[in-house]
Amino acid sequence: MDAGATGASPTSPLTERQEARRRRILDASARLAGRGGFDAVQMREVAESSQVALGTLYRYFPSKIHLLVATMQDQLERMHRTLRKKPPAGDTAAERVTGTLMLAFRALQREPQLADAMVRALTFADRSVSPEVDQVSRRTTMIILDAMDLGEPTPDQLAAVRVIEHTWHSALITWLSGRASIAQVRIDIETACRLIDRTAPKDGAP
């Protein structure tokens, strides 16, 4: 068995060769999903496109759902790197987070079939995919906290971040299903992001 191939656990980091193989797999997954959506991502085709054996692919990602959720986490990491280089401006934390999430949304909008495949995988994920889903959630939280740029967040602000994350995910689903316009998505995200300013510590509060 390819030791350490079953994910990026802190106790079993991937070797350079394994990381390169994982990179090819994720790129192939994104490419196939971008062309044909959720149904186009077939494990055998991913293996062929990434030039790995099918058995090796399953050691890295036990199912298509694991693979697509990991693909979303990878896409969010790429967005995060881009946003760190040029973060959206804004006078308040709410404005900065709104700008950041709308940029992320528009990046997904440019590849709607890929976005739909990843979001469907998140929706279908069961407990076996919890580690990958948690990574997506942590990355989204990090993106929001970086955009807030407020130092150490308070418990109330962390609660607001969770509400914002849920709102963004729900907005993606409603937009992808054709039940919400981009304008409505922005309104919903702006409304949720106002919670950040409302939960800011009062002057003189700890």
How would you characterize the overall build of this protein?
The protein has 206 residues and is an all-alpha fold. The chain is built from 9 helices and no strands. Helix 4 packs parallel to helix 7, helix 6 crosses helix 8 and helix 7 crosses helix 8. It is globular and about 55 Å long. The chain starts with 15 loop residues before the first helix and ends in an 8-residue tail after the last helix. About 3% of the residues have low confidence.
Number of strands: 0
Largest β-sheet summary: none
The percent range for helix content is over 70%
Distance between the ends? 52 Å
Strand content of the residues, in percent? under 5%
Radius of gyration: 18 Å
Shape: globular
**Secondary structural class:** mainly alpha
Q: Taking all residues together, what is the mean pLDDT?
A: 89
Reading the helices and strands in chain order gives HHHHHHHHH
How do the helices and strands line up, and which of them pair or pack?
Layout: H1 16-36, H2 43-50, H3 54-60, H4 64-85, H5 93-109, H6 112-124, H7 130-148, H8 155-176, H9 182-198
Helix pairs in contact: 1-2, 1-4, 1-6, 2-3, 4-6, 4-7, 5-7, 5-9, 6-8, 7-8, 8-9
Task: Spell out the key features of this protein.
206 residues, DNA-binding, HTH-type_TetR-like_transc_reg
